[in-house]
Amino acid sequence: MQNPMNAFPSPASTPRAWQPRIVAFFCNWCTYTAADLAGVSRLKYASNVRVIRLMCSGRVDPQFIVEALVKGADGVLIGGCHPGDCHYVEGNYKMLRRFRLLGRLLKDMGLEPERVRLEWISAAEGEKVKRVVNDLTEQVRKLGPLNLPQKAADWDKELAELQAQVEAAEAEPARA
Amino acid sequence: MIKLAINGKALTTETGRTMLEVAREAGIDIPTLCSHESLPPYGSCRFCVVEVSQRGRTRIQTACTLPVGEGMEVQTHSARVLKIRKILVELMLARCPESEVLRDLARELGVPHCRFERVRGDKSPCHHCQACALVAEMPLQTPDGSPSTFVGRSGCILCGMCVRLCDDVMKIGALGFEGRGMRRRVTTPFREPSEFCITCGACSSICPTGAIELLRVRPQQPRPIPAEFELGLANRKPIYIPFPQAVPRVPIIDKDACVNFMTGGCKVCEDNCQAKAIDHAQQDRVQEVDVGTVIVATGFKTVDPRRIAYYGYGVFPGVYSALEVERLVNASGPTGGEVRLRDGRTPKSVGIIHCVGSRDKKTNRWCSRVCCMYSLKLAHLLLEHTGAEIYNFYIDMRTPGKGYEEFYDKLLSEGVHFIRGRVGEVTDWAMTPDEEGKLVIRVEDTLAGFVRRIPVDMVVLSTGLEPQADAQAVRRLFNMSCGSEGFFLERHPKLAPVNTFTEGVFLAGACQAPRDIPDTVAQAGAAAAEAMVLIDKGFTEQEPNTAYVLETECSGCKSCVPLCPYTAIAFDEAKQKAAINEALCKGCGTCVASCPSGSIGQRLFEDQQVFSEIEGVLAD
Q: B4 partner at 20 to 30 Å CA-CA among A18, A162, B82, B224?
């Protein structure tokens, strides 16, 4: 029988199977504290999420999100304070604006916007951290690996081949 | 200055005053029915007649309208004066034999009975006088059922105080005189119910004989103002002291109910106040105080028991909230500490329902912590005051405090009943003759294992504690955080229990979580000490993670300037670069993330550091 304590398979226990890798940017005042609370409350959540602490969700530069995806993350989670709750008055609203814009950009790039999620989690909502992390992990698992570094390499290769074909085609009539 | 003598007593006084004022000041009592601080002298009742001798002439004059004069010699109780007063009281009694005030006066003056016939339309003789009821007990009945729109009852002595008060002082003018001589009476225009009357009750309260029935002036039930502190169990006036322990203990004026704010009139309280402390022109003032530290102690509110409909609060008059019972058992409360139900009975059995609006998924999930103990206290006091059978309905008894468990033990030995189980409903539906006219508490006794019906006279709902209605506004004001239930969040439950996430703002009391008085006092002391530390130090430490501008990179686009919530970013016009004031910067990094040229950095959270972190967390 499966031990309920091991309900979430960790990447370490099953090294061969693909596991989603999610980078999380958490606000120091709410979501990071909530994640702390989840830990103190002995809540179990998927270990696929790797947390980076920032002082405010307003500090999240869209570059960070893109960089994380480029470096091999399958999803990105941003945790900020509830609207009106920001420790820095309105940083979360600024993040929301950027997030909406970035979502459109990602769609245009051919990425599933569901891979990147913005959640409002207050310092008291350890339960919500657990729920959101597990939920996003499952969602990304369904979407499959993003594997942007490999894709980028493939695209480069494809491009190089095309380049070669074009060059070859240009060279042929000259010979003829 | 004028020299005069009253009853042989030499007095000096200034000109322009009336004899009545001077006599009263000298401690000489002159009876009068028609003088009032707010009304100018009128001389209609004529009870204040005195005998005045001046320059060899003696005359009888009303003291209230008599200006003091040099060398006056006044007799207030001479045989001549008394004789006049006796006749006056007899005449008035003939008109209004029911008046308690007149009968008292007659008794004082030694008038055995009145010899005159009562003058009314039918000229019937005063039947009260036949029994010579002046000294005997006479029922103070009103001749109700008469179709007359005569405002004053038969007790009207036509002093005109009500008319003058309504017209000159209250500035309403709903009452007036009508007719002459024997037909003179106080009434409303055309003897119709007045549209202008605001049922302020000034006429009926000033009437010396209690002759005015407000309902005849305007057939609209006057609405009493419920006293907030007594939770509506008693009424108050538009000017009132909020509660006995108020600091400062001075009266306040309810602008919504005060006649002065409706008509610009009245100000009777101003006339009465000898210290001249009342000022109706006073305006609300908003004071700005510069402080370095703030202790938030905004407290709690109790759950509105109407939310739990099946306990019948607001439906059955016998259902009380615990706070109302607190007023009932209080010696300075509306009943003077006597426990009386709304219908005047003393309860013979009381049911106290615990956890109303606490430990309940439908209302509030948390334990309100203080209710068990205050319920026990009320049980003890109710038992002491009434000797009633007391039933406590509890889920769990929680007595975590010094001496609390001992108190619970004491109650058990006093014979208070404890029934374990959450009450299902309170109903007035009687199933047995025992239950007739009582409130029935239906509860599953989880220790005995069956459902019981317990008939009681009084139900007390031990309401739980919840955050203030405006807690969110306060939270936003101080940049604090809240838990999911709405109580303010401390920085750390163990290491910084009175601090908030905002430096210099501290918490005390039930605004943080439900807690009782000893705990609140202890916490308030801690908060004050923390505030003192900060005040003594005189400075706060700056954030280590402030932002800074790389001047060589900044293009001067100004897009960061409006983003800063602390207005820490200024634009240096000379250099055409943005400049960050590090004393104002709190280090949120919003400007850093949004700088298009990447020319703002944040200490401890540089872009490069975050990129390296991303690389680090993604490395296998």
A: B82
- Same domain (yes/no): A24, A61: yes
**Of B34, B33, B28, residue with least CA distance to B11:** B28
Q: Which of B481, B589, B614 sits opposite A56 (nearest CB)?
A: B589
Looking at chain B, which residue has its C-alpha nearest residue A96?
B590
Domain assignments of chain B as residue spans, ordered by start: 2-77, 225-272, 292-539, 547-618
> String of b and e for A81-115 (b: at least 16 CB within 10 Å)?
beeebbbbbbbbbbbbebbeebbeebeeeebeeeb
pLDDT tens-digit readout, B369-409: 999 999 999 999 999 999 999 999 999 999 998 999 999 99
> Does residue A111 share a domain with residue A63?
yes
* Minimum-distance CB partner of B501 among A29, A54, A73: A29
pLDDT at A7: 52
Domain boundaries B2-77, corresponding CATH code? 3.10.20.740
Within-domain flag for A116? yes
Same domain, A93 and A165: no
pLDDT of A98 > 70? The answer is yes
CA-based max dimension of chain B: 124
User: Are B381 and B352 spatial neighbours (Cβ–Cβ below 8 Å)?
Assistant: no
CA angle, residues B155, B159, B161, in degrees to nearest 5? 105
Q: Which residues contact B120 (CB under 8 A, 6 or more apart)?
A: B154
**pTM, 2 dp:** 0.71
Sheet holding A22-27, edge to edge: A49-54, A22-27, A75-80, A116-120
Q: How far is CA B617 from CA A8, A136, B613, in A?
A: 19, 18, 6
Whether A87 and B484 lie within 8 Å, measured CB to CB = no
Structural domain harbouring A31: 19-145
pLDDT 10s digits, A15-40: 568 899 999 999 998 899 999 989 88
- What proportion of chain B, given as a percentage, has pLDDT over 90? 56
Q: What is the fold, at CATH topology level, of the domain defined by B292-539?
A: FAD/NAD(P)-binding domain (3.50.50)
Q: Is residue A110 part of a domain?
A: yes
What is the tens place of the pLDDT at every residue in B313-357?
Answer: 999 999 999 999 999 999 989 998 899 999 999 999 999 999 999
On whether both A65 and A130 belong to a single domain, the answer is: yes
